[in-house]
Structures are given as structure tokens and as C-alpha cells.
Amino acid sequence: VVAELMESFTRVFVDSVSNTFYPVPQEAIGVGSAFEGWSPREQDVVYRVLVPLNPPLGHAFHLELNSAGQMAARTFCVRVELVCTCKREQLGEKLLCFLHHSRKKLRRKQKPSLLKTLCTGSYLDVEKTSHWFCQLVRCSWLHLPESYSWHLVFQPCSRSCQFRLSKGKKSLMVEMLFGVRHGDSDIFVVSQPTEAQKGGSSTFVSSQPAEADFTASTAWPETYAVAEAKFFRHVARQVPCESLHLKCLQVFTCILRGTGFSSSTWKTVVMHVLTTVPLSRWRRREFARRLWDIMAYLRRCLQLKRLEHFVLGNERLPAEIRLPPATQRVEPLNLFEHLARDPAAHREAMRAYGQLRFR
Fold this sequence. Notes:
Blueprint: H1 2-16, E1 24-25, E2 29-31, H2 33-36, E3 46-54, E4 59-65, E5 75-82, H3 86-90, H4 103-109, H5 114-117, E6 119-120, E7 123-124, H6 126-141, E8 151-155, E9 161-167, E10 170-181, E11 188-190, H7 195-198, E12 220-223, H8 225-236, H9 244-255, H10 263-276, H11 287-304, H12 325-328, H13 337-341, H14 343-358
Parallel strand pairs: 3-10
Antiparallel strand pairs: 1-3, 2-3, 4-5, 5-12, 6-7, 8-9, 9-10, 10-11, 11-12
Helix pairs in contact: 1-6, 9-10, 11-14
């Protein structure tokens, strides 16, 4: 339902921005546990989609790393640059060049540039863009065939577009994130921290630094959610039992909730095990063995005080997952580095693992 809805939205979005200088929404990408297939069932599932934004004509996007950002929770600014369109004008297009026409003529004959509408200074503003995007969704909804059978209610949010769809007893919660792609890779900067960055925090094991701050209106957090979703699709095409690895992940994130380990930690561990245990061995009759493989991998990581980021620096990623050149060359990032720095946290993690094993 959500996938079909996003296709309908995309068609209307393209028409809505065709004669403006607002960002151009592209085809939405489903990300997170709901689309990967392992959401804990007793939770209220949120269907998250990422809508890539392309620059409008006469504009270009440039990603600039915030120097304060750490590798696992980096934030970027999206600098908007005006580019020359004189050649298009010479070809007969009704487009004035923002760089080479007078301000007076531009004000009289052309709509304002993106710098004048959704930017703070030279940088794309998340909150301004979110307000515009939600208005775009609101206006587009009435033109969708789904509007005749579903009821849509918006939820307040300053950095994404959230709404609930309902039809009779059916109800769906949808969050539309928007972002900018790193070149032609599967890495994006997004309006709102994604599921792994926002939720599933643990008492002592976190895959994201606690001091990460995404509150600045021009700060766009980096996300690996699209790359991870592509990895799960890659695995699903090869494992004998399509959902066994997802059932394993559900066990640890749902049944074993409250054991001190975050859902993002379990997800990282399971993804690593999928690259170390041959995919041919993920059969239904081997369910218990794979659960113990996951436990054993976590134990080794805790003993070594090292859990490597799954995307950054991972040489075992499938070739179909595209990374920016700079990301390919980085050293694997240790998500358990804080356990090495804090002996008390490491003792607590080992104690929790013992309780988890018993449970």
C-alpha cells in the first residue's frame, strides 16, 4: 500500500514543481525495519520512505562535511550554488540565467531561485524544506486515487513529513524523509535521523555517539539506511529460506527487548553474521544454530571491545552497493570503542550478555 502510494505521490510531485525552482522529488525508497521485513510486531510499525531531492534547473547541490561530525554520526550542510543556464536560453527555453541577468529582470519575469525560498544563507534549510515538502504532500493528496478510499491525518514534525492513513479498521503510520544523495552512491544526507540513529538506544551499547547533534536547521545527518536495505534485498535473493535471517533479527529485537542491547546493535551483528556464515546454511531447520552464531559473534565483539560498522570500511559488501570513494577508503569504524574506554561499561555489557545467554 505504501509503495503504491509513493508512486502516486511521485507522479504528482513532478508536475507540481515543473515550472518552479524548488527541489525536484525523485522516486521514494523504502528504508528501515518495516521495509526490510523485521519490525517487532507488537510495536506500532512506522513505514519510512526516503525521497531523494534533485536540484532544480539553474542550481547545484554540494555536500559540505561539518567538521564537528564524527564518522558514525556525521552531519553535512547542503550548499546551493547557482549555475549558468545561458546555453539553455540560447536554445529557446524560457529560462533566464540567475547569474547573467539583472535582478530587476529576474524579479519581473522569473520565479525566485531556491536560494530565496528554502535556504538560510547559501545552505538548504531542513525546516524550511520540511514545511514546503509537507505543503506539497498536502496539496498533492487530493489528486491521488488513494484519497477516495483512505483518510490522511498529518502528524506534527519539523524535519520530516509524518501522517497516518486509515481505512476502516486498517491504519498505517508513514514517515516521509527527504534527502540528497552523495554523488551516484547509496549514501544520503537526510532531513531526520533514521530509525537506527533515532531509536533502539541501549543502556550501555549504542551504535551512535550520544553527543551527535542534529538540531541545527542547516545540518543534514548522513544515513546508510538505503545501503543496508539493498543488502537485505541482496541476501533475500540467495538464502534458501527467504525470511530466516529476519526471524533471527526479530527474536533479538522483540523477544529479548530490555536486555540492554539496542536494535541497531543487533541489526549490525546479524548483517555481519550473514557475511561470515554461508548463505546456503540459512535453512529453517538450522534456526537454532544461526541464533547461537549470532550470540557467539556478539560475545567475540564484546570480548574484543570491537564491533565494526557494517558499511564503513567493510570489504565484504556486495558490489551492487555503491559507496562514495572517500567512504570506501576509510578504516573500519569501531562501534564499541566506548567499551574500550570505559571498563565499567564493558563489565556491565558482559554481565548483560551473561543474562541474555541464560534467557
